[in-house]
Specification:
alpha+beta, 2 domains, two-stranded parallel sheet, two-stranded antiparallel ribbon, 3 helices, 6 strands, about 30% strand
Length: about 90
Amino acid sequence: MRLFGVSRDSPWTHIAWSQVLDLTFPLLSDWNGEAVRALGIGIEFRGLRDVAGRSAFLVDEDGTVRGAWRYGPAEIPDVGELLVAALSA
């Protein structure tokens, strides 16, 4: 099992966030928004289109999405729930 973070931020921004937050997993850039559109999670935020809505996905080794969670802008994902789902998949 491998954990990744993905956002529309640039790779350079991800380097800064990784350092500031001392993250132990890679952050991947969806700079052009392909993943946002493919997963159907694009929202409009402050006049910007195709901003990634806060989401979590469980994807297997073959690339099949096995679970999907959507969160409101102020919600924080329940990491315990996501880990249980990943371990039982």
